[in-house]
Amino acid sequence: MNHYQAETILQVLLDIVNEAITIVDMEGTVIYWNQTAEKLYDIPAADIVGQNITQFDWNSLKIAQILNERRPIYQAYHEPKPGKHVLVTAVPIKMGESVIGAIASEQDVTKLVRLGNELITRTSQLHNLEEKITQLAPNDDPFQSIKGHGPAISQVIGIARRVAPTNATVLISGESGVGKELFAHAIHRASKRSKEPFIAVNCGAIPAALFESELFGYQGGAFTGADQKGRPGKLELAHKGTLFLDEVGELPLDMQVKLLRVLQERLFYRVGGTKPVQVDVRIIAATNRKLEERIRQGAFREDLFYRLNVVSIEIPPLRSRLEDIPELIQLFAQDIAVNYEKPVPIFDPEVLVTFMNYSWPGNIRELRNVIERLVILMEGEVIKREHLPSTIQAPRIEVDQMTHGLAPTGSVQSKADELQRIQHAIQTTYGNKTAAAKLLGISRATLYNKMRKYGLKFR
């Protein structure tokens, strides 16, 4: 393969990727500028290839800085111009110990930000409507408390709805914080046992020595210090209702044998008792462990697994439900703000991008905790990147000339910048003038005056 063929293949490869690709040499001169970059910045390759990247006034990637510092950046947020939002990965190109250039890949997330802002606005409106409707006619849908309308969570809710009216044993799996107990409660409330008890047992929180008496209860005088009248266990308390075994993978092996017997025979004996106790109970189990792996380790019985796994429901982690994050952000923010008597915050686009690019190892529980912290500690009404916990803050491209708020009026350029920022704020908030004014740091009346000044329509 000759040099011309290799260069042609490279050019085709650069043009078929979805990211905007920029390659510069060690002097900062643009070598490659693919078709996606042309569309993103509306700059033809012919106008930029061969030119120095620093000559352009659209808040460049500062590749020259990357060349100087020889320090790569990964998935950094950048707003190269108002209304454009990207995630940038840029690395120096090395030959041995020498830096011979740099390459940057920009993922355009503008549509993601706009969709997120629109979802936040729509969610707020729907939430207010739901509250009004509930006041007039209370909604008794047991699954209403499970938030999200994306395909991943909708499919899981559909399975739960279908299994709820039956007496089938259900095994709910998913990472910690995804809402397994919320699903268990919803299934119980949607079942024929809804008027009977829902008893929850955390199998990982009860010492092994006490587990048998907790689950089966004990006969009077069964052991030293025992109540002489005896005490019913969780199984008896759940009679005719639902027993929820949370973190069932932590159940001791000897208790697994006894639980299996209950599932098979529907009876058990209290600790120290000789009279069998008949029980009618539905079992819903949950685990954040891979039970198949626990079986291979000899820590979980295979026969019990198949008894519990009649209907399996796997709740997706939050990182697989990106389309639900804007809705969850707004719902949590509204509920928490009302609870603490604080204003409902506005989320800067960079915060939205950061949230949707974060892996959320603690899932929905972690997201709610972060929103609660932000609402409690916020001083203004706009939550920005610097307000986020350090563990969540994504890297960003710092641009010296980027300013916040409106520029003072005077020169033609400052007026053009002011108009651009007003248009950007209105676009970002989807026409919500109050939110746009807060985003700009001015009053609503001032915003209206400036809109009249520039001939902007009040829609």
Automatic annotation (TrEMBL):
UniProt protein name: Sigma-54-dependent Fis family transcriptional regulator
Keywords for this protein: ATP-binding, DNA-binding, Nucleotide-binding, Transcription, Transcription regulation
Positions of transmembrane segments: none
SMART domains for the chain: AAA (SM00382), PAS (SM00091)
Pfam families attached to this UniProt entry: AAA_lid_14, HTH_8, PAS_9, Sigma54_activat
Residue ranges of coiled coil: none
Limits of the PAS domain: 6-52
Listed PANTHER family: C4-DICARBOXYLATE TRANSPORT TRANSCRIPTIONAL REGULATORY PROTEIN DCTD (PTHR32071:SF57), TRANSCRIPTIONAL REGULATORY PROTEIN (PTHR32071)
Single GO term (MF): sequence-specific DNA binding
Xref: Gene3D superfamilies: 1.10.8.60, Homeodomain-like, P-loop containing nucleotide triphosphate hydrolases, PAS domain
Native species: Thermoflavimicrobium daqui
Start and end residues of each Sigma-54 factor interaction domain: 146-376
Record-level GO BP terms: regulation of DNA-templated transcription
